[in-house]
Design goal:
single chain, mainly beta, Methylamine Dehydrogenase, Chain H, six-stranded antiparallel sheet, five-stranded mixed sheet, 2 helices, 35 strands, 3% helix, 38% strand, disordered N terminus
Length: 484
């Protein structure tokens, strides 16, 4: 972990030959240590980068900083955020703290966030909310440059049915926002639907899930994900078998297109590799889905990952706990992985991010560390870098969701002191595919509580990390802009 304890704000180098935004295989080029078959195989591999998560018993304490109100310059182009007219646009008072490693801004909306934020095609942050004043559903849009907030009402009824929005949201290539929802007539149980919202006009339309998704209250509601080609994918518990997963890609009119994959034990798997590798696994659900740079989607399942392409093919890739540490080539062990984030900008190699945990030999009982891990399409696991702190309990692979920026770097929040190089509190830990790392300490002005790291951060094009902060209020977003 030679680059994991760099000074706050600096992005340390990875091993020789590993650069930010590139994939580095253990041993540099490796041409002098592997045979021709291995070299050829690795050139053809599409990597999946994941994040492994670890644990510490005690969360760090954030010191509150009292800041001045943030400036509110005009929105680019003079318009309001989101391009809509309902609700107008207002520059919400934003607290600002000018810290050593980052500028931290707090933005307050007028609602309670139930979903998001997600980035629109023009780089604004969209959230599903309930109005704190009326309880009605709405969309809140934050301009990350001006901090202008605009609100846009969502219909509470459609076709005579009451509608509750689940928080799932994804933008398609046309800039339409797809929302997950449940609709029900009075006194009847709800049924899952999709709602398509058109920014600018505010028009909404509902679409059926065609009976493919389970409406059982014991299973999670359908989730929506945007691929790197801006296709929108739906994932839900299959109605025929809640232990299986239904996956489909949507067209612009809400129709399911190929593939319509239902990963259950009862489906016909003849002639597919999935039958050989996964048919004997009980209730092998897939998810959540994440995109790679080629437009494919990846999801975790029991004992491995599954790749689903827009062309309708699927591949199960077994993975185990064994890994190789990138810089030292030492053997390592990783725990369960959970994929998250977006694909790196490399259409040949590709990459996605995720969560898991790595078990360090020197950890105290019940503790592990978070680490970035690369998993290729043959199931080989490489540990890229390890966070300096043990900050959660072992076995909790979802403790710190990770986000991915446009260059392919992984970002996630860690509690602690970064091995003594940062003040006690929280910091963003950034890892590139060559093993380089950066520590970005921050505190939230006006709030002495740590940010609950329950959702992946969103990294905007200017390099700032945004995250929800319910500890500071139900409609609060925090921006951390690194200085270096």
């Amino acid at each position: 972990m030679s680059s994991s304890a760099d000074a706050p704000g600096s992005l340390g180098p990875g091993p020789e030959g590993g650069q930010e935004g590139q994939d580095a295989h253990p041993g540099g080029s490796g041409d002098d240590t592997v045979g021709p078959r291995a070299r050829r195989r690795r050139r053809l591999v599409r990597n999946v980068t994941v994040l492994a998560v670890a644990a510490a018993a005690v969360a760090g304490v954030i010191v509150a900083v009292t800041g001045n109100p943030a400036p509110a310059p005009a929105s680019p182009g003079g318009g309001t955020a989101g391009g809509g007219t309902a609700g107008g646009g207002a520059a919400r008072p934003a607290m600002l703290a000018d810290e050593a490693a980052a500028t931290v801004v707090v933005v307050k909306t007028s609602g309670s966030i139930t979903g998001g934020p997600v980035l629109s095609l023009d780089g604004q942050l969209w959230m599903v909310e309930l109005s704190q004043a009326t309880g009605q559903p709405m969309l809140a849009v934050v301009n990350p440059v001006s901090y202008v907030v605009s609100t846009h009402p969502l219909p509470a009824t459609l076709g005579g049915l009451s509608v509750r929005y689940t928080g799932a949201e994804a933008f398609d290539a046309l800039g339409q926002l797809w929302l997950g929802a449940e609709a029900a007539p009075p006194g009847q149980p709800p049924t899952g639907i999709l709602v398509r919202y058109t920014p600018g006009t505010g028009a909404s339309a509902q679409f059926s899930l065609g009976g493919n998704c389970s409406d059982e209250s014991t299973v999670p509601p359908p989730a929506l994900y945007a691929a790197s080609d801006r296709g929108v994918w739906l994932e839900c518990a299959a109605s025929q078998d809640s232990g299986g997963t239904f996956i489909a890609r949507l067209d612009k009119n809400g129709a399911f297109t190929v593939p319509a994959v239902m990963n259950t034990l009862s489906r016909a798997l003849e002639g597919t590799r999935l039958r050989d590798d996964i048919a004997d696994l009980p209730q092998a659900t897939i998810g959540p889905l994440v995109p790679d740079a080629a437009g494919d989607m990846w999801g975790m399942t029991k004992d491995g990952v599954v790749q689903v392409t827009a062309a309708g093919t699927e591949m199960f890739i077994p993975t185990g706990p064994d890994a190789i540490e990138l810089q030292t080539q030492a053997q390592a062990t990783v725990g369960p992985l959970q994929l998250t984030g977006n694909g790196a900008a490399d259409s040949v190699v590709g990459g996605v991010e995720g969560l898991g945990e790595c078990r360090a030999a020197g950890a105290r009982a019940g503790q592990t560390q978070e680490c970035a891990v690369s998993v290729d399409s043959f199931g080989d696991v490489t540990m890229l870098a390890t966070a300096p702190d043990y900050d959660n309990h072992a076995g909790d692979a979802t403790a710190h969701p990770a986000g991915m920026d446009a260059s392919g770097d992984v970002w996630f929040i860690v509690d602690g002191t970064a091995g003594g190089s940062a003040p006690q509190g929280q910091y963003f830990f950034e890892v590139n595919s060559g093993g380089g790392t950066r520590v970005i300490p921050f505190s939230v002005p006006g709030d002495a509580l740590p940010v609950p790291a329950g959702q992946a951060p969103v990294i905007t094009m200017n390099g700032a990390a945004w995250t929800r902060d319910p500890a500071s209020g139900p409609g609060t977003l925090v921006e951390v802009m690194p200085k270096n």
